Structures are given as structure tokens and as C-alpha cells.
Amino acid sequence: MVAIVPQNVAGHVNLVRDLAPTYWKGVSDLTVRNFLTMYNLRRFGRLTFNARGHTQVWNARVKQPSVFPAVENQPLQFVNTDTDIQYFIGIKGYRTSDYMGEQEYLMRDGAGDIAITDRYTRKSQELAQAMSERIQRAFWCNGNESAFAYDFAGIGTATAYDSNTLTNADKVARPTGSYCGQNTALGSLGGTWSATAGDTPPNASLANDFPFGQGSPEYDGTSPLIINYGPNIWGNGGAGFAKNIVSAASYAMTAMLHRGGQSLVGAPPQVAMSSNLFPQFKDSFRANNRQIMPWKDGDLGYPGETLMVDGAVYSMDYAIPQNNAYMYLPQFLEAFFLHNDIYGPHGPEWSTSHTGYLYYASSYGNFKFLPKYLCRFVSKT
Question: Does some domain include residue 51?
Fold first, then answer.
């Protein structure tokens, strides 16, 4: 059965359909700008579109071939060293929809194409804003938790830690859990790490020098860095985020550089925190500095709310749950999508059963991380 479309608005609908790609592209740019993390991903070229396949697979080098001293008359050993591991992640999706009744279209018909297209622009913005906020929230969640089983796998998936082995004397926590088919625990792939006799280990249960010292690359090849900012162990005369975050973040920066070496060259590390923590960070920084300088490369859409300290950019992000803070390297994460943008629009399409026009948008894809280049700040007091 052919649906009957009101003739006096059909022309406007065709115009809207022709212009839809332009509208949605503009809305996509606007909403990305309004969310710091998505803006960073687009700015540093970490948004990928038109991805294909049921899953995404990527390699990470976590081992090195053996190197031996050259000793006369010692026979060579030829070993096929498997240096890479594979991460794999499935495709997840989101949907959103809206509706414009026949009466609303008829009421706007007398104003011509502008009224109809303006209304469609607003519908586009509302759908895109809702979709962007949902994807942004997912960026920070733990996809291994049942509450987020159908969401994109966020940064929390790769930064789970063992709170039972973390004491208020430990500067770092032990990573635990799994991410994209790989165990994130230290030593899960084997390897060793140095343990300097007489030194207090950063984590007593690990009883070694990690994240400093030396070790084999597979020991921490799949593990993030978890920093305990809470207790009074940082030499600042107190406990809590405001007292210790600058010291803890500086410690994290050095540890990330120590573990990653030249991998940190490129985009500056980003430290993003919830909006309730950022004023505390500014207060902590202000207590030890005469002035606060914004990041010289722009305010990222938050005027006066970005700072650069010790080579890292510090900011808040609307979508981060309260009392959470993370450090990430943009060049080692990616958001990929199956559409040619973050979302794909459909409509408006006339529906006789709804006696109006239906709008629909979807987004399919996921996030990809290398856990070694992630850091999470937690509190044990």
C-alpha cells in the first residue's frame, strides 16, 4: 500500500531531504566542539569514519627479540619471536528518533521553505546533541560492567584496578580486569620487573619498582597506570584531591614518559577530570604558583578552563562522572564509526500510521585504546 503524503508539504520535505547532509555535518561539528574529548579526537585526527567489519582488530607490540653479547665461537640461536598481541572489539550502536505531526507541518506551510527547514535544523540539533551526550558518557564508562554492556567500551574498561591490594601507603594501584581480549594485570604476559632492595615500593603488594625501574616490555605491555592521589604520602601536608593532585599528576607524567619513552612525542597528554574536581585542581596549582597560564594552543571550547602544567593539558569534561580523573595520550586512542560521520540521519519520512513525519538517527562504532598509554587517578584514604 502506498502511503498518502499531504501534497502541500511534500515539496518542503524533498527540500529538507536534499539539504539533510549539510545540516547534519554542521550539527556534528557544533556538538563535537561542545564536548572536549570528542573535540580532541577530531583535532588530533583520531575519529575514523566508514569503518567496516563485524569487529575491529589491531596489533600492539609488547615484546622484543632477544639480544645477546657477541662472544667468539658461541653458536647463534634463531628464534621466531612473536612480538605482537591483538586486541579485538565488537561494534555497538545507538539510536534516537523524533516526530513532527501533520498539523505542525501544515501550520508552517504558509511560511514557505524557510520555516520548514528551520524546524528541521532544530530537530537535527536536538537529535545530534542527545546522541553526542550519550557517546560522550560512554567514553568514560567501564564496558565490562553489566550496566554498560550495550554501550561503547569506554576508558574505564581498560583502567579497572584492585582496590583490595591498595593501601594508603601505596602511590600506585594494581591494574586488574580485561580489555578487548587481553588481561590488563601486570605480568599477565610474563616478564620481570626490577625490585631495588631497601627502597619502599610504590605498591607494597607488587614489591617491585613499578612504574619506575626497569623490566621486560611484556610485563606492563597491556597495563594502564593507576595513581593513588588520596592519602597523605605526597609531601603536601594533607590528604585529598586538592592537596595532592598536582604532585600525583607530576608523578604520573614522569612515570608515563619512563614507560613510553618517545611514544609520548606528539599531542600533549590530556588530563581530564570531572567539573567538581577541576576547581580543586586550580586551587592546588594556585597555592604554589603566582599565576595560572592557559594552554597556549587554545581554550578547547572552555575559555579559561584549560591549563598546561608540566607538559600536560588539564581540563574538565562535562561527561566525566563526579570525582573521576584520567590521563590519556590522544595518539593512542581512536573512536571509529560505520557512518561517514559520528551519526547517520534518516528522514523525514511520512508515516500514515503516525500521521506525521518520522526522524531517525543512528551511530555504530566503538572506542579503541592502548591501555599502556592510559592513566587513572583514584583515592584510597
Answer: no
Q: Which domain holds residue 302?
A: 190-332
Q: Give CA–CA dist 261/268, Å, rounded.
A: 14
Q: State the residue for C-alpha cell 514557505.
A: 112
Comparing C-alpha atoms, which of 242, 270, 244, 243 is closest to residue 256? 270
Does the reported pTM lie above 0.70?
Answer: yes
Give how many domains the chain has, as a whole number: 1
* Mean local confidence (pLDDT), 14-34: 61
**Residue 305: is its pLDDT beyond 70?**
no
Establish if 84 belongs to a structural domain.
no
Whether the per-residue pLDDT at 3 is higher than 80: the answer is: no
Instruction: List Cα–Cα distances, 47 to 43, 64, 203, 367, in angstroms.
Output: 9, 30, 36, 10
Is 287 within a domain? yes
What is the CA angle 18-30-48, rounded to 5?
80
What's the rounded Cα separation, in Å, for the pair 9 and 110? 10
Does 197 map to a domain? yes
Q: Mean pLDDT in the chain?
A: 80
Confidence of residue 6 (pLDDT cuts 50, 70, 90): very low
